[in-house]
């Protein structure tokens, strides 16, 4: 039975280490961590979660996507588990977009990310997948990929003026609607 995990908050050292690669994705202990991550992400209504966020310093994350107010065209997708993820290439073109993080509740930041990326990862079954992502999916991947390198989105924000509290962010969304 999956366990709803606590989410590590900014300041906990587990968020600042480089996660270890997974030797065997089919290891029952690894599967149990992934099951826990899935229920924890769903409960928190996240669009992604990385293993260090549930105090497991391993190179695993889940990318999920659904349309949302800032990215109305974000593709709806089944949450996808990515093990030992790699960035193969990135587009020169970057784009700034708003991000939040389950480990930094209440804060949003304008983060520059590569608009298109090529990635490789292992599935839960241990199969190699290569994909090209763009826009919102590329953003979520890069955010989660940062987590397994010990980085968080505020590290990439270019100015503290591009950090806002969630309440103000939501208010600005309404006023631009
Ligand atoms: Zn995050």
Describe the structure.
With 177 residues, the chain is of the alpha+beta class. Helices cover 24% and strands 31% of the residues. It contains three helices and eight strands. The strands form two sheets. Strands 1-2-3-6-7 form a five-stranded antiparallel beta sheet, sandwiched between helices. Strands 4-5-8 form a three-stranded antiparallel beta sheet. Strand 4 (94-99) and strand 5 form a beta hairpin. The protein is globular, with a radius of gyration of 16 Å. The relative contact order is 0.18. It binds zinc ion.
Topology:
Layout (H helix, E strand, L loop, with lengths): L27 H17 L3 E3 L9 E6 L11 E14 L3 E6 L7 E8 L1 E7 L5 E7 H14 L14 E3 H11 L1
Antiparallel strand pairs: 1-2, 2-3, 3-6, 4-5, 5-8, 6-7
Bound molecules: zinc ion (ZN).
Give start-end ranges of low-pLDDT stretches: none
Average per-residue pLDDT, rounded, comes to 94
> What's the CATH class label?
Alpha Beta
Determine the CATH superfamily: Peptide deformylase
SS-based class: alpha+beta
What is the makeup of the main sheet? 5 strands, antiparallel
List the ions, cofactors and other small molecules found in this model: zinc ion
Alpha carbon gyration radius: 16 Å
Bin the helical content: 10-25%
Quick description:
This protein is an alpha+beta fold. It has helices at residues 28-44, 135-148, 166-176, and strands at residues 48-50, 60-65, 77-90, 94-99, 107-114, 116-122, 128-134, 163-165.
Give short descriptive properties of this protein:
single chain, Peptide Deformylase, binds zinc ion, alpha+beta, 24% helix, three-stranded antiparallel sheet, 177 residues, five-stranded antiparallel sheet, globular
